[in-house]
Amino acid sequence: MTMYYKNLKATAQVNGNDQGGSSVKWTLEYEKENENIPAPIKYLELMPVITKNIDTYLTKNA
């Protein structure tokens, strides 16, 4: 990762709602090492998996 991106930061913002659930907004900030490097799309595909795993953990441990 460090050979492609100078910086890569993922942030999750979780907001509760009136029905007892919540929504998650992911932000991915990055700086490429150079312009020939592709955007880190594979990390965007990982975000729903991480969200589901956190939800499962919190549901089991609430």
From TrEMBL:
Residues 3-61 form the Bet v I/Major latex protein domain. GO terms for biological process: defense response. Pfam families: Bet_v_1. InterPro entries: Bet_v_I/MLP (IPR000916), MLP-like (IPR052006), START-like_dom_sf (IPR023393). Belongs to the MLP family. PANTHER family: BET V I_MAJOR LATEX PROTEIN DOMAIN-CONTAINING PROTEIN, POLYKETIDE CYCLASE/DEHYDRASE AND LIPID TRANSPORT SUPERFAMILY PROTEIN. This is Bet v I/Major latex protein. It comes from Trema orientale (Charcoal tree).
